[in-house]
Amino acid sequence: MIIVLLGYMGSGKSSIGRILAKKLNYKLIDLDDYIEEKENATVKDIFRTKGEIYFRKKETEYLKALLKLKENTILALGGGTPCFAGNMEAILEEDNAVSIYLKGSLPFLSEKLFQKKAKRPLIAHIETEELMTEFIGKHLFERSQFYNKAEITVLTDNKEKAEVVEDIILQLF
């Protein structure tokens, strides 16, 4: 089985994916890390040198290949992955995959991301929590139609990572 973790930036896809993979003894693949390895460049550099269209094409290509894996895998997507090139439909059509939306509320994500913005190039320039809320709110509005198609939704607000992992396991098995 391939467990596909999706959700907005800061929702815990990578960190929860690591814990879940360890607990279930599954392989973990972070799609952004996988793309960086295959393309021999950071996501930031790919966007800068080859553009978003190139990145999204590669993202779709690698996603579709990874969905065909036969080993038990946790696949942590980038926040935008489900929203482009029919990627969400490809995930839902794959018999061997189950999609899980790690859902954080707008206030929760805004506060969390504002504190950690220096580590995230997309939002590093945002100067106030109010502007952060506006930025994330706009993205969530655009992306929620894709995120909400996931087969399972797990709420993450104010939960320890271990608690989120337990919620996922309870809904899966």
CATH superfamily: P-loop containing nucleotide triphosphate hydrolases
The strand line-up of the biggest sheet is 2-3-1-4-5
The average pLDDT value, as a whole number, equals 94
Distance between the termini: 12 Å
Oligomeric assembly: single chain
Structural class: alpha/beta
Low-confidence stretches: none
InterPro entries: P-loop_NTPase, Shikimate/glucono_kinase, Shikimate_kinase/TSH1
Subunit structure: Monomer.
Function: Catalyzes the specific phosphorylation of the 3-hydroxyl group of shikimic acid using ATP as a cosubstrate.
Binding site for substrate: 32, 56, 79, 143
Question: What features would you describe in this structure?
Answer:
With 173 residues, the protein is of the alpha/beta class. The protein has one domain (2-172): P-loop containing nucleotide triphosphate hydrolases (Rossmann fold, 3-Layer(aba) Sandwich). Helix content is 54%, strand content 14%. The chain has 7 helices and 5 strands, in the order E-H-E-H-H-E-H-E-H-H-E-H. It has helices at residues 13-24, 31-39, 43-66, 87-93, 106-115, 129-147, 161-172, and strands at residues 2-6, 27-30, 73-76, 97-103, 152-155. Strands 2-3-1-4-5 form a 5-stranded parallel β-sheet, with helices on both faces. It starts with a strand and ends with a helix. It is found in: Cytoplasm. Its cofactor is Mg(2+).
